[in-house]
Design brief:
single chain; about 290 residues; alpha/beta; Nucleotidyltransferase, domain 5; 2 domains; five-stranded mixed sheet; 12 strands; ROK; transferase; ATPase_NBD; kinase; Sugar kinase
């Protein structure tokens, strides 16, 4: 039997036919539809191609696991405010939903089964993440477990200076655009220009590494995980992972009070981490993990 694993993202929707062991048998992708009817039509066409034992979603927003409602807001407003359990009841199989950043964290359990405790930091426009304790997702009393981006690294004044506003890819790009006046910059171009010696790009990257290192040390000494995995598109850049690790080591070596250097790795499944994490979530919810 196979599981339908679906990642609903802001730019695309991924559908993967997967075995319980994590093998992808088929995969389809489409641009994120403009409305719910079009999304449901895409899902129905995919689901009609096989006999699925379950349906597993990775979604933006806060998931109410009891009602199947995706609460909060996201870049896809039409997925919120109704029960997905009710909407998909006609398929007659168990349906699970989990927040996308949490799914990235859960995917690490599939690629690194020896790990029991880890923190996953997802870096993009802002910073999100997930906490895995004893092999299970730690959601917290208010479903805020892993919301590392809210970590305050500098005392607020007129604006809140949390980890998301100081250390995200979004912050990196905004800083370079503001200082150069060139709105064509994205994360890739910042690194390309840094290789050419652009001082603004070099300094902006260094500041990002610094702020990321501070947050990662806070996570290590709060949770003491086996490993801290980094997700988001920028994590696929080996230079980025090495740069953050080096900055963490510099800070640890500077202060004798620190005794542990956090182990930092890129999320194994990269851009497909969400579908793998959705599978792990379904297996755990259905007591098949």
């Amino acid at each position: 039997m196979v599981i339908a694993c679906i990642d609903i993202g802001g730019t695309s929707v991924k559908f993967a036919k997967m075995t319980k062991e994590g093998a992808v048998l088929e995969k389809e992708t489409c641009p994120t539809p403009e409305n719910l009817e079009a999304l449901l039509a895409f899902l129905d066409a995919c689901l009609a191609k096989a006999d699925y034992e379950g349906i597993a979603f990775s979604v933006p927003g806060a998931v109410n696991r009891e009602t199947g409602v995706i609460e909060g807001i996201s870049a896809i407003p039409y997925i919120h405010g109704f029960s997905w359990y009710d909407k998909l009841a006609t398929y007659g199989v168990p349906v699970t939903l989990e927040n996308d950043a949490n799914c990235v964290g859960l995917s690490e359990l599939l690629s690194r089964p020896h790990l029991q405790n880890l923190a996953c930091v997802v870096i993009g426009t802002g910073i999100g993440g997930a906490i895995i304790l004893n092999g299970k997702l730690h959601r917290g009393r208010h479903n805020l477990g892993g919301e590392f981006g809210y970590m305050t690294l500098r005392e607020p004044d007129q604006e809140l200076h949390n980890w998301s506003t100081l250390a995200s890819t979004g912050k990196l790009v905004r800083t370079v655009r503001e200082q150069t006046g060139d709105v064509s910059y994205d994360g890739r171009k910042v690194y390309q220009e840094a290789h050419l010696g652009n001082p603004i790009c070099l300094e902006s990257i260094e500041q990002m590494y610094h702020h990321l290192a501070l947050g990662i040390l806070n996570i290590q000494y709060s949770l003491d995980p086996d490993v801290i995995s980094i997700g988001g598109s920028i994590s696929q850049n080996e230079e980025f992972i090495a740069g953050v690790q080096k900055k963490v080591e510099e800070i640890v070596n500077r202060y004798p009070e620190y005794s542990i250097v956090p182990k930092i790795v890129a999320c194994h499944y990269q851009e497909d981490a969400n579908v793998y994490g959705a599978l792990v979530n379904w297996l755990q919810e259905e007591q098949q993990w």
